[in-house]
Amino acid sequence: MAAEPRRKIVAGNWKMNKTVTEALALVRELRGMVSMLRDKVEIVVAPPFVSLYPVAKAIEDSNLKLAGQNCHWEASGAFTGEVSAAMLKEAGCTYVILGHSERRQLFGETDETVNKRAQAALKAGLVPILCVGETLAEREAGRTLEVVERQVKGALAGFGAGEVASFVLAYEPVWAIGTGRTATTAQAQEVHAALRAQLARLYDGGTAGQVRIQYGGSVKPDNAAELLGQRDVDGALVGGASLKAGDFAAIVKAGA
Ligand code: 13P
Questions:
Q1: Fewest C-beta in 10 Å: which of 166, 224, 249, 251?
Q2: Mean pLDDT over the full length of the chain
Q3: How far is CA 178 from the centre of its chain?
Q4: Mutate-to-test residue for ligand 1 from 9, 13, 174, 228, highest number of ligand atoms within 8 A of CB
């Protein structure tokens, strides 16, 4: 039997933007703009923690899904400032973004902590969106594939093929995030294909064929179609352009 084609997944990472009131306004506008796409493409929004529950209510019975931007590896306890995977799940999340480069660069996230968070996420019934990506210095030193493959291997340590098949990876070159400088379609496709080949080596071809790999880094309405048209690019993880309903809806439509 032929494998199901991978459904594209476009997610908006709002980062530390939008108050609850602003988040509700944005998501209500977006909901109307993408409703006609139904389930042609999976659409995810990742607002800050305080807006998750109200946004979950505002997107009930819609084709939008919710993601947290991080979660802790412990189930509960004395971890001031952290949020558990079960809390995200109960607040209405389907996904959780883990290992974003901003968390790695600014908050000391490592491959090991990303792995621990991913294990907690899965245990709570959340699907991890695991982010990997090289810095400009690493790319210029010809180390791109070595870096992203190390990050993938670290994040997936201990997981079995059946678990990994549902995961989402996000390739986000650090030099393309928030800079307006996008990877070329060839650069994105090269890394995505390498990651899929790595998944086939770590697990098997069937699993590698099921994992969706998003591209992130200055995705905009005018470059989305070309990026999403690449063979191994299964979606987008959108930062800045996800803060405007019209721009994000246009990117989502490029994936439909
Ligand atoms: P930008 O789309 O603003 O470059 O951000 C990408 C990103 O980091 C998404 O997680």
A1: 166
A2: 97
A3: 16
A4: 13
Domain positions in the chain are: 8-254
Compute how many other C-beta atoms are within 10 angstroms of the C-beta atom of residue 5: 8
- 235: enclosing H helix or E strand: strand 235-238
Catalytic site residue 172? Answer: yes
Q: Is 84 in the pocket of ligand 1 (CB under 6 A)?
A: no
The one-letter amino acid at 206 = G
- Residue 237 and residue 216 in contact, taking contact as beta carbons nearer than 8 Å: yes
The rounded Å distance from CA 142 to ligand 1 centre is 23
Region 61-76 average pLDDT: 98
Both tokens of 83, joined, read 């949020």
What pLDDT, in 10s, does the model give residues 144-191?
A: 999 999 999 999 999 999 999 999 999 999 999 999 899 999 999 999
In the chain, the N- to C-terminal Cα span, in Å, equals 24
pTM: 0.98
Residue with CA closest to ligand 1 atom 1 = 239
CATH superfamily, domain 8-254, is Aldolase class I (3.20.20.70)
Mean pLDDT of 29-43: 97
